[in-house]
Amino acid sequence: MTQKTPGAAPRDVRFDEFHSQHSLKNAAIAARKRNYQDFLIVDVDAHHYESESYADVFEFIESPVIRRHAIESSRRGGRSSMLGGAVGDQGLGGRITRHWLRGKERVEDTSKHRDITTTLRWMDAMGVDYCCLFPTPMLFLGTHPQVEIEVAMARAYNRWLCERILAHEKRIISMLYLPFNDPDETYRMVKDFGDKKGVVGFMITAPRYKPVHDNAYMKTYRLLEEMGKPISFHAAYNWSDQSLALTNRFISVHALGFMWFNMVHMTNWVINGLPERFPKLKVMWIESGLTWAYSLMQRLDHSYMMRTSDCPALKRKPSEYMREMFFSSQPMEIPDDPSILEATFKMIKADTQLVWSSDYPHWDFDLPGVIYDQPFLSEQAKRNILGGNAARFFGLDTAPVKNIPIYE
Amino acid sequence: MTEIFVGKSSNLKDDAQIIVRGARGEIGVFRHEGAFYAYANTCLHSGGPACEGLILPQVVDVIDENRAYRGQVFDETRMHFVCPWHGWEYELKTGVCVGDRKQRLRKYEVVQRGDDVFVIE
């Protein structure tokens, strides 16, 4: 017999329209099936494309000279510009269709920035209550050769983000970009923006060449600790890095680069005894997955027992300090043998230290199901990782506030 | 067994992609070189709408007689459809997952009665 159910009419797959929520319809159905509406889900690493708002962001650049460079050079797309851009086709030759369809998304409400509307659309579809929003092209700004450009863009973007986004939507929070190549400006950023609405911490983009243990940063770490604001390191790659330049495919530079810089910073952070110097400073490592930490803990512990004289500031094994830090989950490696994943979770003390992240709308985003569907986790552990641990880290209210759409 | 109407064959151009609703979820129907193929519209990776992405050929590394790499080409005889969420690729004619050939999407039979095209669930 022929099915003639109302509303079940065949539909064409279309490449001339986009809606952040409808494109995640399957995620919303999964969210309802798993009862995500009943508990808190916090996404500690999500993104928008601040470059789509550069015309507005540039107006926040304080220096009229740099502002003019930014505006003028951005008018000629495809040529060199003040900011430049990272090499690497994240969109897989157009296969990740949301990357090129997103410009077709319609937003009727013009009373607030469209990024608020589109962000809430995908958050509700996934079942996310709060998301920590980060920029995208600026993840590579730490390698800009002109330090004053990093400082100018960081201040402009942070002011723009606070005024245009965070002030208007409580479900969107952020750890603000720190212009780490200038230690004094890094300190000033924390001073000036630490108390702004929606600012739940500060973020250092990992691809850069300043050591985190440099004495110039101690006053900033101390200030953060006193303010109770966390610090985080957001991974990315730098294809111009001398070692990573040996790779010839994006998959390679991405797999290595997103671990490499965080491994270096983590090693310096621990071996130089920063956890002993700033015991109350909360630290999060973002977007390196999980296996790097599992590996580094074992490497450092093994050497530490023979070389305690190299790192006399430590009173415990390196892994013990690392296990007190927080790790974002995405891109979560899912090995064929689930016992390996279970061991990884155990190694990093996932029940209390792992925080789920989507990285949406980037090409390798994760859904909450990567955590919720793991059979070795208790219901409480799932809820901790999906929201409870982040609520503790950021000091968020734990009552769910999302509105998951109903598609079935 | 249920027959789900897809459309009029005369209206379904080559490389058409149609989504219909079955009892177990959505089904993606492709028309390619005159033939029809239908698969569950749920990616084996994380549940994305696997049949709602681009149709692209297999990418092939060109290795010469000295085993040296000579660039990449598309193999138009091996067409894939790509899940738009993360890029998992499936063979258009079989539903086999390109990255792990042990996995494949659930396949559905497609029948034509006159000008009407149906998926059988």
Count of structural domains of chain A: 1
Described by strand count, sense and barrel closure, the largest sheet of chain B is: 6 strands, antiparallel
Could you say what the CATH topology of chain B is called?
A: Rieske Iron-sulfur Protein
Q: What's the tally of helices of chain B?
A: 0
Q: Between the first and last Cα atoms of chain A, what is the distance in angstroms? A: 23 Å
Second CATH tier, the architecture of chain A: Alpha-Beta Barrel
| Distinct helical segment count of chain A | 16
Summarize the main sheet of chain A: 8 strands, parallel
Per DSSP, what share of the residues of chain A sits in E-state strands of 2 or more residues?
5-15%
Describe what this molecule looks like in 3D.
- The complex is a heterodimer of chains A (408) and B (121).
- Chain A is of the alpha/beta class and 408 residues long.
- Chain A has a single domain (27-49, 113-394), classed as TIM Barrel (Alpha-Beta Barrel), CATH 3.20.20.
- Chain A has helices at residues 25-33, 54-58, 64-74, 98-101, 114-126, 147-166, 183-193, 218-227, 250-271, 274-277, 291-304, 318-322, 338-347, 350-353, 369-372, 379-394, and strands at 2-3, 11-12, 42-47, 130-134, 172-177, 199-205, 231-234, 283-286, 326-328, 354-355.
- Chain A has an eight-stranded parallel beta sheet with strand order 3-4-5-6-7-8-9-10.
- In chain A, α7 links the parallel β5 (172-177) and β6.
- The longest helix of chain A is centred in the middle third of the chain and has 22 residues, at 250-271.
- Chain A is globular.
- Chain A starts with a strand and ends in a 14-residue tail after the last helix.
- Mean pLDDT of chain A is 96; it is low at 1-7.
- With 121 residues, chain B is mostly beta strands.
- Chain B has one domain (3-120): Rieske [2Fe-2S] iron-sulphur domain (Rieske Iron-sulfur Protein, 3-layer Sandwich), CATH 2.102.10.
- Chain B is built from no helices and nine strands.
- Chain B has a six-stranded antiparallel beta sheet, with no helix packed on it. In chain B, strands 5-6-7 form a three-stranded antiparallel beta sheet, with no helix packed on it.
- In chain B, β2 and β3 form a beta hairpin.
- Chain B starts with a strand and ends with a strand.
- The relative contact order of chain B is 0.26.
- At the A-B interface, β1, β2 and α1 of A face β1 and β2 of B.
